[in-house]
Design brief:
CATH class of the largest domain: Mainly Alpha
Number of helices: 13
Number of domains: 2
Shape: globular
CATH architecture of the largest domain: Orthogonal Bundle
Mean pLDDT: 93
Order of helices and strands: HHHHHEEHHEEEHHHHHH
Number of strands: 5
Low-confidence stretches: none
Radius of gyration: 22 Å
CATH superfamily of the largest domain: Intergrase catalytic core
Strand content: under 5%
Strand order of the largest sheet: 3-4-5
CATH topology of the largest domain: hpI Integrase, Chain A
Helix content: 40-55%
Amino acid sequence: MVLSDFFRQVYRPLRLRGRSPNTARLYENTIHQFDKFLGRPATLADLTDLEVSRFLEHRASVRSPFTSEKERNQLCSLWRCACDRRLLDERPCIPPTPLPVRVPQAWSIDELKRLITHAKVSPGKVGDVPARVFWSAMIQVLWQSAERVGAILACRKGDYTRPRLLVRAEYRKGGKRDKLYSFTAETCDLLDVLASTGESPMLFAWPSAKCYLWNRFGKLIDRAGLGGNKRCKFHQLRRSAATHYCAAGGDPTALLDHSSPRITKAYLDPRYIDTGPRPCDVLPDLG
């Protein structure tokens, strides 16, 4: 059986029910990459330890180890489902990819002010609204909510009633809980323009492909002099909000709606958080 057919006919209805369309898209991309590696459509018979390991080694050479590990998890999940349905006999035995632990990076307050300053003078339009309004509102909303950009993009005009925005569970990762956010008067003035302009029901109506949104935001970051890092995109606003909220005494785990402080730790930039004396401050000077 062709692996892509197994995904559409069996795996997705059984295992991805209630999950976001983006989750299915990521699985489909992994299968597509496996097809390209094999030079033909992959079948269930290609799910062997050796074949999948060779594919993962190739992917790690052209993409990040995090991408390779994501694809390992997805292929192994498809594989285990096929075994559960008695379509394959041997279960996967492929160890996880060793992943580097990065130091989280957040923008400083001065850098964030520089970013919003450049957003306020963005030329042109985004759909029916001035680009300066769209980008200023996007940055302020992500900063003041620490929400994921995908959830904010899914919000509809009816979800906004000044000064609050209801981000429904269906929009958010995991789809379990609604979140209600309040914003400053300046941010609400921007949201009022978005909510009253154009015929689209979406609050942040993006007229192009979603991938182009990241491209445009990257150019805004470059104009503000904050580029040079592939991780400096929308999620850096989430890390920045969590870091500075923690530095101000707030609970970043509750802010990010994480299930554990261990997960939140990967979002907090240690440069802006007082974590006690450093070794260089307390160890004797060796001269």
